[in-house]
Amino acid sequence: MSQNESVSHIDDVACDASYFDQPVSRRGTDSDKWDEEAQPGELPMTIADMDFRTSPAIIHTLENKVKTGVFGYEVPGDDYYNAVAGWMSRHHGFEPPRSWMHFVTGVVPAISSLVRHISNMGDNVLLLTPVYNIFFNSILNNGRHALASPLVYDRAHRSYAIDWADLEQKMADPLTTLMIVCNPHNPIGFVLEPEDLARIVRLAANHHVTIISDEIHGDLVLRGEDYTPLLSLPDPLRHNVIELVSPSKTFNVAALHAATAIIADEGLRQKAVRGFNQDEIAEPNLAAIPGTIAAYTRSDHWYSALKLYLKANVEHVEHFLATSIPELVPVQLAATYLLWIDCADLLDRYPLTSEEWKAIGGQASRFTVNQHDALSHPLGRTDALCAFIRQKTGLIVTPGSTYGAGGDFIRMALACPRRQVDDALHRLKTAVDQWKETHTGK
């Protein structure tokens, strides 16, 4: 019996909505969202972590781990990798072989390492925008170019699609050697179809591009068909793919700093693992191994209840917007707890003032196809709207320009108790009413 098996025998505990209704005070806990970003009285609905307690099995396991009083060097063993593979098999129909997997201290550290070791200085790293903004940092901070292939927004149906001609053109650029795919896609809540993923991988192979698939939100598909782990595609489509998974978003355990890189191709895997070791991101902290095992082996009931609660939160907000703030229209969400809200109707009818235009640089955001300097992206109309909302009500939401090609959108995180969601909606309604009162309507 391994130490992790002996640390806790807590069974998976059944949970219901009441578990997630419990308020959790996170001020004074070194929370990025509550202590760094928000001032007293403000309500942050921004950073993608949850204001829920994690699963009882994880809590009890880590309590017992600390009680051992021994915090020496650790290495992930078969119990860790079996837990990862078992979770993927049960919930996503794909069981990666043990030899494909390697522990890393997080998805973002792994992406930054892969950018350094799989591409060369000055190369292009291709992104489907709007996309998780930290990808830009991993690219630009390592001397590469962030090359955007903007997704096509269908305003009539509030949905997105890939511009295949543009994507292939960008892949064909000799300087494009990497592509980061967000699967499912943050911030738009988009789940790519297996056929689309296969098409991306084929295009990438044809143009000698390696795909990094960030699947950190893969467990949080709330509607429709499940997401497709990229390495679950048939064998010919696996040789240029690196898949990254983590319990971080699913179980609200970002501070565990635990993730798994899954790489089928042996040569690509050896190159990636050398990079992980050189960058010192392959050694777990004291909580990473037992926390991950508890998440993946003894938290299924909690996980099922979580998804039901998150789906109910999303539907609650969608209904409120449709009936109380119809000028704000959410994009169709299939995955994540991050609602992507189209504010163009409001901003077209009640335009920014001249002072607000001046504050954002005089033009609406457009993350162009040639935009490389993603860290200095132009601001969008919702930068002014979000500043107004915060000033008037203390509600903090994220302007879409943060993610590129999203200057008329806001992102709102909904992984919190319903009472907190209702507080946010009340503040949002108050702010929008005040916006309409203070801005000349068309």
Describe this entry's structure for a reader:
By secondary structure, this protein is of the alpha/beta class. Helix content is 41%, strand content 14%. The protein has 17 helices and 15 strands. Helix 5 runs parallel beside helix 12 (288-298) and helix 6 crosses helix 11 (266-278). It is globular and about 60 Å long. The protein starts with a helix and ends with a helix.
Distance, first to last CA:
71 Å
* Low-confidence runs of at least 5 consecutive residues: 5-9, 364-376
What's the CATH H-level homologous superfamily of the domain at 78-298? Type I PLP-dependent aspartate aminotransferase-like (Major domain)
Q: Note the total helix count.
A: 17
- Total beta strands: 15
The outline comes out as: globular
Q: Mean pLDDT, rounded to whole units?
A: 93
> How much helix is in the residues?
40-55%
Which CATH architecture of the domain at 78-298? 3-Layer(aba) Sandwich
Q: Decide which structural class fits the backbone.
A: alpha/beta
Provide the CATH topology of the domain at 78-298: Aspartate Aminotransferase, domain 2
Oligomer: single chain
Main pleated sheet = 7 strands, mixed
Q: What's the CATH class label of the domain at 78-298?
A: Alpha Beta
Question: Strand arrangement, largest sheet?
Answer: 2-10-9-8-7-3-4
Which value, in Å, is the CA radius of gyration? Answer: 22 Å
> Strand-residue fraction?
5-15%
Topology record:
Elements: H1 3-7, H2 17-21, H3 32-37, E1 43-44, H4 56-67, H5 78-92, E2 101-104, H6 107-118, E3 124-129, H7 134-140, E4 145-150, E5 152-154, E6 159-161, H8 164-172, E7 176-182, H9 194-206, E8 210-214, E9 241-245, H10 248-251, E10 259-263, H11 266-278, H12 288-298, H13 300-324, E11 329-330, E12 338-342, H14 344-349, H15 354-359, H16 381-393, E13 395-396, E14 398-399, E15 409-413, H17 418-438
Parallel strand pairs: 1-13, 3-4, 3-7, 7-8, 8-9
Antiparallel strand pairs: 2-10, 5-6, 9-10, 11-12, 12-15, 14-15
Helix pairs in contact: 4-12, 5-12, 6-7, 6-11, 13-17, 16-17
